[in-house]
Amino acid sequence: MRNFILPCMITLIIGIHSRAGYGQIQNTLTPEDKAAGWQLLFNGRDLRGWHSYLENKPGKSWQVQNGAIALNKDAQSTYRDYADLVTDEAFENFDLKVEWKMEPCANSGLMFFVHEDPQYKETYETGPEMQIADLACSPDSRILKCRAGDLYDLIPADTEWVTPGGKWNQYEVKADRGHLQLFQNGHKIIDTHLWDDKWRELIAHSKFAEMPGFSAFHKGHISFQGTENGKLWFRNIKIRKL
């Protein structure tokens, strides 16, 4: 009897830890999350609540695989298939958390305050970007202000806490009445303010200087950039309004 009970107890303990002790089920909210005002932007099953930029539905390269939003493109994919994915809803003051991973050597980006209008052909013409890049061999990872976690072409992260390609990372973006904070795997890496003189000076010395709509909007969509190479995945995407 003892030999039977002990393995069963171990199995029960492991089962409890797999669901609770080591984190909740993916793409769900805890009672504490709900009480704090968090809402899911991805249900783990389909792309409800998302569409490709300037389209009415997601491009076919954006799929759901194993509880994650996956960008699955190949040599036959057209730009329309993997055009940047954006939320249906626009947000003003918010706290956003998302987990991502990618194949080695890939790169992408998390954009916010994206204004969707045909006069802007790309999401980055309006939305600032928290860079997503593999540390090992993505060309951007060798350029200051273009590495993982950097506010792309504007402010470099003070430290890179990102994991190697193929492993999950968490990004957090807090935007509250112009106060912007970026976190990488729990570490604050950028703390700045939008829309003041210093911010306008940063833009003037970046590639966005020639884009009059860049960071011009105080409310906009969240967006994931369709990577130019490699595959990437997103999960546990949640937001709370501030």
Q: How would you describe this structure to a colleague?
A:
- There is one protein chain.
- The protein is α+β, with helices and mostly antiparallel strands and 242 residues long.
- The chain has one domain: Exo-inulinase, domain 1 (Jelly Rolls), CATH 2.60.120.560.
- 14% of the residues lie in helices and 32% in strands.
- The chain has 3 helices and 13 strands, in the order H-H-E-E-E-E-E-E-E-E-E-E-E-H-E-E.
- Strands 1, 3, 4, 6, 9, 10, 11 and 13 form an 8-stranded antiparallel sheet that branches. A 5-stranded antiparallel sheet has the order 2-5-12-7-8, with no helix packed on it.
- Strand 9 (169-176) and strand 10 form a beta hairpin.
- The longest helix is centred in the first third of the chain and has 20 residues, at 2-21.
Question: How are the elements arranged and paired?
Answer:
Blueprint: H1 2-21, H2 31-35, E1 39-40, E2 50-52, E3 62-65, E4 68-71, E5 85-91, E6 94-102, E7 107-114, E8 129-133, E9 169-176, E10 179-184, E11 187-193, H3 197-204, E12 220-224, E13 232-241
Antiparallel strand pairs: 1-13, 2-5, 3-4, 4-13, 5-12, 6-9, 6-13, 7-8, 7-12, 9-10, 10-11
Protein name: DUF1080 domain-containing protein
InterPro entries: AL/BT2_dom (IPR010496)
Organism: Compostibacter hankyongensis
